[in-house]
């Protein structure tokens, strides 16, 4: 049997390229929240990315469902907010999935909060303080500068986990960073009118957003983190709101709006339900449009 060497020389490079492409496309990413699914997709556009939650869910409260266990069992890397945001459900997923790849940050487990300085860290925590995070506020994806640092660290984690495609992850991150850095001054110029605005919000979900834009949260609809608004607490907030300097009451798409609506109606201030992450409304399909939507909605509401 004669072998066509010319045919082999033509096929072998193509096959090698195909195998390399399959290796890149085969990276399985388990993201705890949709913002990190979106970030992972920016850095590894050909990867299989699964988000354990949606923007319509409270990431503090997730059930370790069989479907999530199955997805984590398949994961090469798990990308989560950290700072104990997922403490109530992630360890259970790790245990039941028996996937050694995502059990430790030495391997494929990645916590965003470990790569930036978080706000509101606490030296001491006890149960009387409510649902607080000693390691700081975990909702750091609403600060574009911190998110950029997280993206860089995530690209290096992917390069570690999938060394054969390391350069592709680094190049994808560089492309994302260039586009992201170009948008930040645009967002800041657009949101300049929001600087100094005072709001009442539910929880500290938008702490990083307000900090970035120079806004101030002067009241929390929760009497303590994790506790629903009480009648007496709402009455105190109404007294504060009647001072006339509150621009809006802000809640996320998954938080109960009854307390916010009660306060908004009596204080005659608008109630704004903002998306908390990618997919929180029709406009928020990726990280860029998510930021666009949040800023546009705040400007529209607070300029009335």
Explain what you see:
- With 304 residues, this protein is of the alpha/beta class.
- It folds into 2 domains: 182 residues, 3-Layer(aba) Sandwich (Rossmann fold); 112 residues, Nitrogenase molybdenum iron protein domain (Rossmann fold).
- It contains 10 helices and 8 strands.
- The strands form 2 sheets. Strands 2-1-3-4 form a 4-stranded parallel β-sheet, covered by helices on one side. It has a 4-stranded parallel β-sheet with strand order 6-5-7-8, with helices on both faces.
- α2 links the parallel β1 and β2.
- α3 crosses α4.
- It is globular, with a radius of gyration of 22 Å.
- The termini are far apart.
Keywords:
304 residues, alpha/beta, Rossmann fold, 4-stranded parallel beta sheet, 10 helices, 12% strand, globular
Task: Give the helices and strands, then pairings.
Blueprint: H1 5-25, E1 28-31, H2 34-43, E2 48-51, H3 66-73, E3 77-80, H4 90-97, E4 109-111, H5 144-161, H6 166-190, E5 198-201, H7 207-213, E6 216-220, H8 231-241, E7 246-252, H9 258-267, E8 271-274, H10 287-302
Parallel strand pairs: 1-2, 1-3, 3-4, 5-6, 5-7, 7-8
Helix pairs in contact: 3-4, 5-6, 6-10, 8-9
């Amino acid at each position: 049997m004669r072998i066509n060497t010319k045919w082999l020389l033509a096929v072998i490079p193509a096959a090698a390229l195909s195998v390399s492409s399959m290796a890149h496309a085969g990276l399985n990413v388990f993201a705890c929240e949709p913002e990190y699914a979106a970030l992972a997709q920016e850095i590894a556009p050909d990867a299989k990315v699964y988000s354990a939650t949606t923007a319509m869910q409270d990431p503090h409260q997730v059930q370790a469902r069989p479907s999530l266990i199955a997805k984590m069992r398949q994961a090469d890397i798990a990308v989560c907010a950290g700072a104990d945001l997922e403490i109530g459900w992630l360890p259970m997923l790790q245990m039941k999935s028996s996937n050694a790849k995502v059990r430790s940050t030495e391997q494929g487990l990645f916590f965003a909060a470990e790569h930036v300085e978080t706000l509101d860290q606490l030296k001491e925590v006890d149960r009387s303080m409510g649902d607080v995070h000693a390691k700081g506020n975990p909702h750091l994806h609403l600060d574009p500068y911190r998110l950029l640092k997280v993206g860089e660290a995530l690209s290096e984690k992917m390069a570690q986990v999938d060394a054969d495609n390391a350069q592709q992850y680094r190049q994808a991150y560089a492309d994302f960073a260039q586009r992201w850095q170009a948008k930040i001054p645009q967002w800041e110029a657009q949101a300049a009118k929001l600087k100094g605005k005072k709001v009442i919000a539910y929880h500290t979900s938008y702490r990083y957003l307000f900090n970035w834009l120079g806004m101030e949260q002067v009241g929390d609809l929760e009497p303590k983190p994790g506790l629903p608004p009480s009648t007496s607490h709402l009455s105190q907030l109404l007294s504060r709101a009647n001072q006339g300097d509150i621009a809006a009451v802000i809640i996320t798409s998954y938080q109960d709006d009854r307390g916010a609506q009660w306060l908004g109606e009596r204080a005659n201030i608008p109630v704004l339900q903002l998306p908390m992450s990618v997919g929180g409304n029709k406009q928020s399909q990726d990280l860029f449009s998510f930021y666009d939507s949040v800023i546009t909605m705040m400007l529209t509401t607070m300029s009335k």
